[in-house]
Amino acid sequence: MTETRVHFYQVGSFAVGNRLLSDADRTVQASRERTNSLDSGHRACQGCGEALGARYALDAAMRATGGRLVAVNATGCLEVFSTPFPETSWRIAWLHSLFGNAPAVATGVAAALRAKGRDDVRVVGQAGDGGTVDIGFGALSGMFERNDDVLFICYDNEGYMNTGVQRSAATPPTARTATSEAVGVDPGNVFGQGKDLPRIAMAHDIPYVATATVADLHDLERKVERAMTFHGARYLHVLVPCPLGWGAASADTVRLARLAAESGFFPVFEAEHGVVTGVRRIRRRVGVEEYLRPQRRFAHLFSGPGRPDLVARLQALADANVERYGLAPQEE
Amino acid sequence: MLQQLEGSRAVAETVARCRPEVVCAYPISPQTHIIEAIGAMVKDGRLAPCEFINVESEYAAMSVSIGASAAGARTYTATASQGLLFMIEAVYNAAGLGLPVVMTLANRAIGAPINIWNDHSDAMAVRDAGWIQLFAETNQEAADLHVQAFRLAETLSVPVMVCMDGFILTHAVEAVDLIDQAVVDSFLPPYEPRQVLDPDDPVSIGAMVGPEAFEEVRYLAHLRQLDALELIPEVAEEFAALTGRVSGGLLHPYRLEDADTVIVAMGSVLGTIKDAVDARRGAGERVGVLGVTAFRPFPVAAVADALAGARRVIVVEKAFSLGMGGVLATDVATASPASGHDLATVVAGLGGRPITRRDVEGILERSAQGTLPRLSFLNLDDDVVARERARMAASRRSGPFAENVLRDLATGGAHR
Amino acid sequence: MFQVRIHGRGGQGVVTAAELLAVAAFDTGRHAQAFPSFGSERTGAPVVSYCRIDDHEIRTREPIDEPDAVIVQDVTLLHRVDLFGGLAPSGFVLVNSSQPLEDLGLGELVGRLPSGHLAGCPATELALAHVGRPVPNVPLLGAFCALTGEVPLEALARALRHRFAHEVAERNVAAATIAFDLVRDHEEARRAPTA
Q1: Considering its fold, how many domains does chain A have in total?
Q2: Which ipTM did the prediction report?
């Protein structure tokens, strides 16, 4: 899809409404052509960003491969809510093995297909941030290093939501989780060094790395389709807000994803062979506070006297992203 | 053709003739020679079509195997010791999913203390994982068992582990009759999976199963193991008819006819034990050996039957359950609880300590004299143990006990 | 059963020597079993390998504590490792050395073993000259064939040609043959009546 500059904003959410776009660019929620890879009836929470992201990503992958797709899933919310025994929401060939091994299992599927001469069938691996940046990290790096023909998608909701909202290496600093409570002098998660998986993926010089959010589903779909034009290891990191874990309203999932990008807190870009080839520039820059305030996990930053010092440090992280990727809005 | 071959090479050549489509492994002594040889065969095109994948860990090796098997490929891997423990979650998973992966386990001790030599601690650590576990006595049997393993695994949709003693077998050069490709092809039909990841007929594999069905799913897996008790001897007989070789099966009985004392053991030590038994038979003693080939599933009825006439049963095993005793011995006791024989466990060969014919004859002598305890450790240096116990009693910070024992040995007990 | 223990250091082909011996014995229709002492693989570390040769099936898996022959590939191991422990009273000893064995402090052994059961062989020099590498294992095997008569030199040559590529194999065969001749000639000279 070509990028169209639209100057009309909907009041309130700053979303570009469907009615302002040409027919070809409009988001289609349901149609007879859609695969519904992740079908209705699953047990995801209201407003689940991961369910939304997975549905669009896999449907895009199915379109890109003509339906010749196998998905491998790590343990986590997506796996649990999609397959409550004896039902499954998956309308594609789907395998779940363990929490930390999805990249390696996907490698195995790809190897078997290659040995059997089934070059038409492509493989997608998927996991949450825990299965990607923490427990599955070694397997993922191995898959990247070997350049196995797998698109690996991380649905990043910044914590172990399936087990009751514990901290992962993708949890932002200061965020309250069940294992980084908002107590003490440094409430919430620590300011560590961060574990920037997209950049780690780029350091492997794999053919394609991209980030996306569920606030811009066309961008997500386009990146999945772009990823499928490559062979070898590809990585897609999708920010998927979690109403439960973030302490946000179910109706705010898309809005929060947009604010994450528009504040620069979550940079949206793509890279080929280790080099950034495109960024999604911020349309209307907002401060991180606007993104943080609606989330209960950051409430301790704003209650009483608040912690403007910590908010300033978070703002500095966003500013660094804007600087690193050149995300600043274009001059009108 | 009979050839003088290293055990690892014999296994690699045999596995190649089974035409695996995906081989994935991570190197660990003493398994390395097997995967090196297979890797070279894939690389030079002798084994094709086959994907050989070098991975970053054993956990990945078994995980790749899971993916490959679920996608319908005949899949092989190999490991040992710490490697098996590192992949243990995936070992259980492969069995739970019913994926017929075949794996060689080059049996090796488990640390700490780190030790690269042979015993059976690794195999025992996964005895409940749901894999068929077969123990090879010789390199001929190790090679042959792999052909049978693929057949068993794919017939039953159960993974199979071929256990061969690390170094003692893997690195031993002895005569092996490599099976002909045509014989393998007739014995091992192309793999027809019960479940496969196929875009044309999509299924979900690996769903969450709650208390409403988990027990039934696990029981079905148990039934497949019981099916294996029937199939293992059948497959061994069919193999014997094709090759003229007795390899595999549930048990290897030796001179049990009128034996009143029977040693039960697994793996390569059976050869040494047989030599000892022959020597004692020569001296007029009624002794025999029961080799256990199928450790999982455990042939309860066949073991009970084989031991029915024995008055004394001695389990010589290369592993034990700390705080309990013999592992194999516990199974043997379960198999024949009402037989009325005395059962003694001799833990031997830990971490590569040799088990000699003289050792075995000594065990038989003590058994005949009635001085063999219910649980004993072969050639245990009681003095070294006592001195370390004394050091621990004398000082709170007595230090790391493995290192203390080494220093004690080096100084002949002078170490304080 | 004839049991051989080979002592050397990592990188000297100790394990290969036992394997070659087993292959050569197998080639003559006998049963053979070769195995290493299973240490960590480190160049220079003391290494032991074993080979059993028999006319019957070999079932035992125990290490060789009572060898019929000991091959010492590296003289720096002398008096540091118990090289000759358990050696049969009428056993054989072969040492990689160009010096007289008495000079190596092996006088006691010379006195203990039957005459003609002890030999030195300048295997490293032979290997350097003929194979181009200071790996003494193959010349020592040639010397072993002459000393013990357990394995014919022709069988060893076939094992070498099976193991190594053409030119390398022939160089090894040449080195083994010269070592064989050295030991045999020495023995014949010893037996010959003094003039």
Answers
A1: 1
A2: 0.94
